[in-house]
Specification:
Helices cover 53% and strands 12% of the residues. It is α/β, with parallel strands linked by helices and 759 residues long. Among the domains are: 234-348 and 355-425, no CATH class; 510-518 and 545-613 and 631-747, Rossmann fold, CATH 3.40.50. An 8-stranded mixed β-sheet has the order 8-19-18-11-17-12-16-15. Strands 1, 4, 5, 6 and 7 form a 5-stranded antiparallel β-sheet that branches. A two-stranded antiparallel sheet has the order 2-3. The radius of gyration is 65 Å and the shape is elongated.
Amino acid sequence: MENRPQIPPASGMALDDIYYVIFRHKWKIMLLLAAGIVAAGTIYRTKPPDYQSEAKLMIKYVVDNASPGPAESDAHMQSTDPQGQTIINTEIEILTSLDVAKKAAEDIGPEKILARVGGGHDLMQAAGFINGHLKVVPLTRSSVLAVDLKHPDPEMVQPILNQIISEYKNRHREIHQPHGNFSDFYTQTTDKFKNDLADIEKQLKQARTNVGVTSTEEAMKEYSKAIEKTAQDIRDAEAEMAFRTASFNALTSLSFPNSKVTNANTNLLPKSGPAIPSRVTEEYARVSKRLANLWARDEELGHEYLPGSTIVEENSFEIKKAEAQKQKLEEEYPGIKLSESQMLASKPQSGPAQPADPALNLSNQVVLMSALKSKIDYLKSRLTELQAKAAKIADVQPQISELEQGELLVRENLQNYTKSLWAARINDALGADKVPNIIVIQEPSPPGRDWAKRYKAMMMLVVAGLGGGLVWAFLIEFYLDTSVKRPKEVRAKLGLPLFLSIPEINGNGWRHRALGNGQLRLKNGNGHTPAAIGNGTPEPAATLEIAPWDQKHSLRPFYEALRDRLLGYFEARNLTHNPKLVAVTGSSKGSGATTLAMGLAASLSETGDGNVLLVDMNQEHGASQHFHKGRPNCGLDDVLENETRQTALVQENLYVVNANSNGDHLPRILPKRFASLVPKFKASDFDYIIFDMPPISQTSITLRLAGFMDTVLLVVESEKTSRDAVLQAGALLSEAKANVNVVLNKTRAYIPARLHQEI
């Protein structure tokens, strides 16, 4: 089964990861933090804040008058409540405009404004300085503006702010009320409208007098009702006339069957009293009937119209006229009242029917029919008269309506211009710098320094230094430095099994590598050097160290821990054959694989179970020889023979040989030669054979021999070897069907133990 490492998915950042980054790069973070503190201190010493003055303005409302016209036609008042943000923003733009700053600089003098900021007489430069140091902020949920001005000269900041507020008021009036002084204009216009109104009223009075009404609309309504009522009366009279005619014909047929109906009206008149002409009787009946109708009409009009109205007056006139006619007939014909009584007696009475004189009934019917005819004629003439008057009013109504509309328009304009005239006079009285809708609720304050903002800027520099250090640290940790640093990264980011993590050891106050780079010198029990594992060059005395198998070696506990892990690994996999082949290689040069191989071999030899052989497979050692007591040390073939391996013994049960001692060229003879040695390995009395292999590379012999090993220990140097190199080395060993276990060497514990401790 192929043992190819699998990279697990990246996990989130834990608290110990943050601790690790901070404590590992603490000097970088502290350096940038110190730089931020120094920068803040420099600003505090060299750049104190400018003097400032603050004022507050309340914009109660805005009167916008776009042209010199009527006050209510062009001008309108805009509220500046919290929802009127657009109006407030407009006022801020006016206040912070360059025109206002320029006018203020011109009034104060640009040389005074620029005296503390480089000097000069440039007006635009002074205006630009004011505009750049002026700040206007609307207060939340109010119509108040906080105006702030800064200047290095404490004697100038307050006068400049006062001048800015004054110029802002003038500019506000120029923009919203650009009519200036128009008192004379409003006076002349008002007088003109007064004259026009007088002419229109005169024409309107003359037109109403011609038609005899005060209001054409009301008159037309009254005449319309009168015409409708008169038409209805005509229809009622005609209906009654038809009824009387039918009754008369019926009575004539019943009372005088042999007489002609046409003669009945004269032959059947009553004979009592002096004879009264029929025309007089008919006239009297007509006048009486008309008078009764007029009185009924007057009662109806009294409910609908006010006393003194035109139609009521006309009806009263007709009543008087009818009464005069009736009284005249009564004076000329005193017996006419009897005829009236007879006519009333001829009306049907309630109760049982009484016999009546047929001649009398016919006479009454004739009188009533004559009266109805007169009534109908009168109503028709009345209807014609009303229609004629209504037509006359309708003819002049457009002219009167036009005059009335003109009167209304002129009166409205006169009223608006009168208001504008009063407003102009008030503005003239207030003066050019008085704006009633803008109130200064706080005058410009005395000059003072705003240290709070400067402290805030200094704190931001300190925080920026700290943040920059943290960003630098995390940037290096996660993007720039891709080396393997911690044991958890071997499992989490590389997907390889971790055998052991060996820390970097400090000695005598100086930091040195926990495992050497292959140039350590080995010493046997007699104090001699049996093998120079290196490049064959004698090393200076200053490089001599304690041998890895010495009990006093600082890494001795980790060699023993590695030994125990290895024994447990073999037991877990039920590997009981001898010898067990273990290869120790590095992912790069200087990772400490050679020293780790020697320490592992020494710790295995101390178990007392059998002999341990350490084989140096490094090709770069060339043709160097192992010497013991002045004699050449034996090679790999010799150490497998009991008679010739004494020179390879460095301590009890531990033998060290060089696979290249006979001068063979390893890349050429391996793995063929190694395969021939396998039977000798099995026949030997060695329990463990530790192979010190060269670092992993495309041409390394380690890859060609890894498949023969029971396990391969891949030594990774912490903070030196990149993750890509370890992944590539693990992939190559897996392709060689090797069982790979990682040893992370020279790790550093940056996090204090009280915060986090990594096993």
